[in-house]
Amino acid sequence: MKERIITGVIAALLFIGVTVYGHLPFALVIIALAVIGIHELLKMKHISLLSAEGIIALLLTLATVIPQDWKEQYLGSFTGSQPIVLAMLLILVVTVITKNRFTFDDAGFVILSSLYVGYGFHYIYETRMLEHGLPILFFVLFMIWGADSGAYFTGKSIGKTKLWPVISPNKTIEGAIGGIVTSIVVGVICYFTDFVPFTLNQVLSMALIAGIFGQIGDLAQSAFKRHYGVKDSGNLLPGHGGILDRTDSWLFVLPLLHILNLLS
């Protein structure tokens, strides 16, 4: 427990510091987290980052995670779906060269993992770069963290009905409801303290999404780990697991909020 607390405090202080500062250091940290994230997923599948398929996954992750203005400056017209199409074709070439040792299923894993991690972290950066981006990013994170804590403590105290035992045996329906309620409470507090420039309807909508899809993101990560027989996505953060273990909810919630134009 002591190790977990110390790691959590140090990681939180470093992340908060670089997020508040923003600019290039924040962009580089987000890119680094995405690289670590794709490495963690590939490792679950026993794919080396230095293999042909690993390099393709890394390049596709980088092509999706980098800031939009970097894409326009350095990639020119090679943006949008073009990197995805190229990666798809190259990864299929690998299936041929390896004589199907690297299968079509493996190819699908590589492409999906790269897009999941790359776009997920990309939208974390894009949120920070919005007007009022700093409070907006922390507003979303506060709701996600609130939902996570609310689900944990509610589940511990009154949880009886298993939510999805095949994927995560400790999670309960009561805990999930508690997480959603806590997310709403956190969102409403932020609204009434003028922490963010949103209407109450917007705040309630975002709180529901953070409360529901944050937990779905956590369950998705649990499903990955259970399928591949690992306890944690990595061991970078002692007592906490890997980067994906700490950011799985973010990778669901922030892209969805941008897709629904709730952060504009």
UniProtKB/TrEMBL annotation:
Topology class, membrane: Multi-pass membrane protein
Keywords noted in UniProt: Cell membrane, Lipid biosynthesis, Lipid metabolism, Membrane, Nucleotidyltransferase, Phospholipid biosynthesis, Phospholipid metabolism, Transferase, Transmembrane, Transmembrane helix
Enzyme Commission numbers on file: 2.7.7.41
Pfam families membership: CTP_transf_1
Gene Ontology annotations for the cellular component aspect, listed alphabetically: plasma membrane
Main location: membrane
Transmembrane segments: 6-35, 47-66, 78-97, 104-124, 136-155, 176-196
A GO term for molecular function: phosphatidate cytidylyltransferase activity
EC class: transferase
Subcellular location per the Swiss-Prot or TrEMBL entry: Cell membrane
BP terms from Gene Ontology: CDP-diacylglycerol biosynthetic process
Pathway assigned to this chain's UniProt record: Lipid metabolism; Phospholipid metabolism; CDP-diacylglycerol biosynthesis; CDP-diacylglycerol from sn-glycerol 3-phosphate: step 3/3
InterPro entries according to UniProt: PC_trans
Family: Belongs to the CDS family.
Protein name stated in the entry: Phosphatidate cytidylyltransferase
